[in-house]
Amino acid sequence: MNGDRITVFFDGVCGFCNRSVNLLMKLDRRGQFRFAPLQGETYRKVTAARPELAQEDSVVVLHQPASGPAEIYTRSSATAFALRRVGGFFSLLGLLLWLIPRPLRDLGYRFIASIRYRLFGKLDACRLPSPEERERFLP
After folding, report:
1. What letter does residue 125 receive in the DSSP assignment?
2. For the chain (length 139 residues), average pLDDT per consecutive 10?
């Protein structure tokens, strides 16, 4: 885990996604996650190297281990990965989520994603991090 770089890309204009980022920052006591909007410069660089990710409109986690190749997780797999990394009860929740077959996990994920704007709203612009959060956010 030491030396790993983990970037969570999220829909910067989604109210639900922004609340999820707030929760993840609160749970991430080790400060292992960095965050960047899907609409931002950092994600554009990722999609230049990985064009298949250009159409993603859901959470994407880029895990760059200290040694070994980078791993990319999307949708429910990204959620399960992030939960497993924060520790405590949420690690167990992430593990349980991981045990559900991916097609079923993603079905549930897609359902929530399809109604997220109706339930939590859509922002006019990506969030601006507070001064305390700035070091954890990428452009």
Report:
1. S
2. 86 86 91 94 94 91 91 95 93 94 93 85 73 86
